[in-house]
Amino acid sequence: MNKALAIMYMFPGADPSSDFIVLDDDGVQTIIEWNIDAPEPTEDELQQAWEEYLKQPAPEPPKPLETQMSELKSDNEQLRQAILELTMMIASP
C-alpha cells in the first residue's frame, strides 16, 4: 500500500507537503505529520482507500505533441476568423 496515495484518494484536495507527511523507512510507511481537519485514518481505512484507488481506471495518456499543436492551430484559426467577423460587424454602419 502507498499511504500517501491512499490519503490523497480519501482527501482529494490534500497537499502531501503541508497537510500530511508520510515517512517511508525501508518500506515501512508512517504518517509523521497530520494537518487535515479530520481524524487521522486508521490502517484499515487506509487499506480500503488504497484498494478503491487501485480500482480506478488508468488515466488516458496525453495526445502526441503534434496532435495537440495541430488542434491548437485549428482553434487559433477559428478564433482569428471569429474576431475578424466581429470586427467587420462592428465597423459596418
What does the largest sheet look like?
Answer: 2 strands, antiparallel
The geometry reads as elongated
Instruction: Report the CATH topology name of the largest domain.
Output: Phenylalanyl-tRNA Synthetase, Chain B, domain 1
Overall average pLDDT: 96
Count of alpha/pi helices: 3
Helix content: 40-55%
What Rg, in angstroms, do the CA atoms define? 24 Å
Report on this structure.
It holds the Pfam family XkdW. Residues 4-57 form the Bacteriophage SP-beta YorD domain. This is XkdW family protein. The protein is an alpha+beta fold and 93 residues long. The protein folds into two domains: 3-55, Phenylalanyl-tRNA Synthetase, Chain B, domain 1; 60-93. It has three helices and two strands. The protein has a two-stranded antiparallel sheet with strand order 1-2. Strand 1 and strand 2 (28-34) form a beta hairpin. Helix 1 (3-10) packs across helix 2 (43-55). It is elongated and about 70 Å long. It starts with a helix and ends with a helix. The mean pLDDT is 96.
